[in-house]
């Protein structure tokens, strides 16, 4: 067992793309943790989608043995955390398992919204923080300015920040020394006390079942132990304990301060609660760790197979995905327009995209995605609350007293010249300005915004109006009443449930008009005329008409036989009526998403 003084547990916090994964790769490589021939980029990003998009989704850990300049060999446990706002919550919880953080800031960019959000999470977790300025190989890097910015904005000393290039490897040895010399070893832990370990994360492996990442506080965890999860009450026999190097490597035992995995024939990820305390069944520890609240989905949408025959396959696939991801929820849904499918809940839009991508790619199921929506609180006139996950389920307005919607506090950092556009965008999305400050040549705007206005394409719009220079982060702040209504879309006089949405009354007409116009472009012409309408209750607030594809039946009627011409036209009209009655309008798949994009 490693003495505590030779252990350093840390995470790396950074804004997306500032080089966190590349730095992790270099640390692993330089310490020879992985043989050179096995080295590939982004070692810790296991999933294809993570690799492709260059984002980290689940927390990963790796154990590195580092022979330091002081002659001792240290065990460094790195937890790589997700960088995207959707997964901010996962960052917060994995931080609890370590004592320090490397704060990576791109020296060409400076402090961004997620740098702040993530570093504050680290500070909240009482971390010691070592600033690292990355990408100094690039001519545009300006370490002095960024150092000053870190001091001004975050308020930590950056005078001894490591200057590195994770790409070329410059400065990496300094980072390793800083980890050993500046980050603290784990707080006291006692190997002789009853086992107390924190459940840091869990993931599903198709061969091994659920793998649990643990951080031992007191006691020793080894193969054959019978353990109990103190929150959920589940008891299991430990089949294996080990560490990631980054390949899974079995070890004899895990002692105080150590981070590793256990495998105990646990069936599904849902049976493990992040933050739970793991102890021995026979000789349990007295008090459990404080634990975390479970992460809850905030964005919902319907997923339907394009081909109804794929429904059963889709059910299998969704069940498998849910095994691995406790924050993803689903229930069966039927839609008049789309048939059988699932109403699914996600942590955010990226999470949604990741799951959808995996269903399509790994399971080969083509999907229709309906408009993402948030959870509204409906109150009856007697003050009773009901949660609305799907606008299609909205009851008659006369039974509803008031509606509350979720709001977020959004922090946006942007270079001065784009500030005007950002403020305009926030205003358009019903935002209320909470704060506006300037730090190191950039503006920081804080807005109170309805989540509903953000889930769809806010991030895309923000990127486009600022040419990619803005950064964005948000947190939920609670529910507030507003004048909200359900807007239905009727195509050929039939309401299309999958296109129904909740909107603010003042914006309903504009949104309705935009939707109808978009749909008119997206729906191909049929043999008959198709009215496209937006309505609140029975009141139509916008309308477009898609004209019929017209066969020129009179073309053959040369000459002037007017009565014959008339007869033909009448026949055609009757035919059209028939079509209208029986014919079904084909709405192309992309219409369900494209119609909602609001180009202002
Ligand atoms: N020139 C240069 N490019 C770098 C350096 N470090 C990282 N990059 C590049 O910057 C991009 C982002 O790096 P990542 O390591 O994937 O960023 P990340 O912070 O891990 O991103 P997430 O995992 O999504 O949070 C990649 O294209 C890297 O090749 C560096 O020191 N110099």
Automatic annotation (TrEMBL):
Superkingdom of origin organism: Bacteria
The enzyme's E.C. designation: 3.6.5.n1
Domain Tr-type G: 5-187
Topology of this chain in the membrane: Peripheral membrane protein
Catalytic activity as recorded in UniProt: GTP + H2O = GDP + phosphate + H(+)
Localisation per UniProt entry: Cell membrane
GO cellular component: plasma membrane
Any one of the GO BP annotations: positive regulation of translation
Amino acids binding GTP: 17-22, 134-137
Gene3D superfamilies to which the protein is assigned, alphabetical: 3.30.70.240, Elongation factor 4, C-terminal domain, Elongation Factor G (Translational Gtpase), domain 3, P-loop containing nucleotide triphosphate hydrolases, Translation factors
GO molecular function: GTP binding; GTPase activity; guanosine tetraphosphate binding; ribosome binding; translation elongation factor activity
Keywords in alphabetical order: Cell membrane, GTP-binding, Hydrolase, Membrane, Nucleotide-binding, Protein biosynthesis
Purpose of the protein: Required for accurate and efficient protein synthesis under certain stress conditions. May act as a fidelity factor of the translation reaction, by catalyzing a one-codon backward translocation of tRNAs on improperly translocated ribosomes. Back-translocation proceeds from a post-translocation (POST) complex to a pre-translocation (PRE) complex, thus giving elongation factor G a second chance to translocate the tRNAs correctly. Binds to ribosomes in a GTP-dependent manner.
HAMAP family referenced in this protein's UniProt entry, alphabetically: LepA
Family: Belongs to the TRAFAC class translation factor GTPase superfamily. Classic translation factor GTPase family. LepA subfamily.
Protein name: Elongation factor 4
């Amino acid at each position: 067992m490693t003495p505590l003084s030779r252990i350093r547990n840390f995470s790396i916090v950074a804004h997306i793309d500032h080089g966190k994964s590349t730095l992790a790769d270099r640390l692993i490589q330089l310490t020879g943790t992985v043989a050179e021939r096995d080295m590939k980029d982004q070692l810790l990003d296991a999933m294809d989608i993570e690799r492709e998009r260059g984002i980290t989704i689940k927390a990963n850990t790796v154990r590195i043995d580092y022979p330091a300049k002081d002659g001792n060999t240290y065990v460094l446990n790195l937890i790589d955390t997700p960088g995207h706002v959707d997964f901010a919550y996962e960052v917060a919880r994995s931080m609890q398992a370590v004592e320090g953080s490397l704060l990576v800031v791109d020296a060409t960019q400076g402090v961004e919204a997620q740098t702040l959000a993530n570093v504050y999470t680290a500070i909240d977790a009482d971390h010691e923080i070592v600033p690292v300025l990355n990408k100094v190989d690039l001519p545009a890097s300006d370490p002095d300015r960024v150092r000053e910015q870190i001091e001004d904005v975050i308020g930590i000393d950056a005078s001894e920040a490591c200057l590195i290039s994770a790409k070329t490897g410059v400065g990496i040895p300094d980072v390793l020394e800083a980890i050993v010399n500046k980050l603290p070893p784990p707080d006291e832990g006692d190997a002789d006390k009853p086992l107390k370990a924190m459940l840091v994360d869990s993931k599903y492996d198709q061969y091994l079942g659920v793998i649990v990442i643990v951080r031992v506080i007191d006691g020793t965890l080894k193969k054959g132990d019978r353990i109990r999860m103190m929150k959920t009450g589940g008891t299991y026999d430990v089949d294996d304990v080990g560490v990631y190097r980054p390949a899974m490597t079995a070890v004899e035992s895990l002692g105080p301060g150590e981070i590793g995995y256990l495998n105990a024939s646990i069936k599904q990820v849902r049976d493990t609660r992040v933050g739970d305390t793991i102890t021995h069944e026979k000789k349990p520890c007295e008090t459990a760790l404080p634990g975390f609240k479970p992460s809850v989905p905030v964005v919902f949408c319907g997923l339907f197979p394009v081909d109804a025959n794929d429904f059963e396959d889709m059910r299998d696939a969704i069940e498998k995905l849910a095994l691995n991801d406790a924050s993803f929820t689903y229930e069966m849904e039927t839609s008049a327009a789309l048939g059988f499918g699932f109403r699914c809940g996600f942590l955010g839009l990226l999470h949604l995209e990741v799951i959808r991508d995996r269903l399509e790619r790994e399971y080969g199921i083509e999907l229709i995605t309906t408009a993402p929506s948030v959870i509204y609180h409906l109150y009856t006139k007697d003050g009773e609350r009901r949660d609305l996950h799907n606008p299609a389920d909205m009851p008659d307005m006369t039974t509803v007293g008031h509606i509350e919607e979720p709001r977020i506090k959004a922090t946006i950092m942007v270079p001065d010249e784009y500030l005007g556009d950002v403020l305009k965008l926030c205003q358009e999305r019903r935002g209320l300005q909470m704060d506006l400050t300037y730090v190191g040549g950039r503006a920081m705007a804080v807005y109170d915004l309805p989540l509903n206005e953000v889930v769809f394409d806010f991030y895309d719009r923000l990127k486009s109006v600022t040419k990619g220079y803005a950064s964005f982060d948000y947190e939920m702040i609670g529910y507030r009443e507003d004048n909200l209504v359900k807007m239905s879309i009727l195509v050929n006089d039939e309401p299309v449930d999958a296109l129904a949405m909740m909107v603010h009354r003042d914006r309903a007409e504009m949104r309705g008009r935009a939707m109808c116009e978009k749909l008119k472009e997206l729906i191909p012409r049929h043999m008959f005329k198709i009215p496209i309408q937006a309505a609140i209750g029975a009141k139509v607030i916008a309308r477009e008409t898609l004209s019929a594809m017209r066969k020129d039946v009179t073309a053959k009627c040369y000459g002037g036989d007017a009565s014959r011409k008339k007869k033909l036209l009448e026949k055609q009209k009757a035919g059209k009526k028939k079509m209208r009655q029986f014919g079904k309008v084909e709405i192309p798949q992309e219409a369900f998403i494209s119609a909602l994009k609001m180009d202002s």
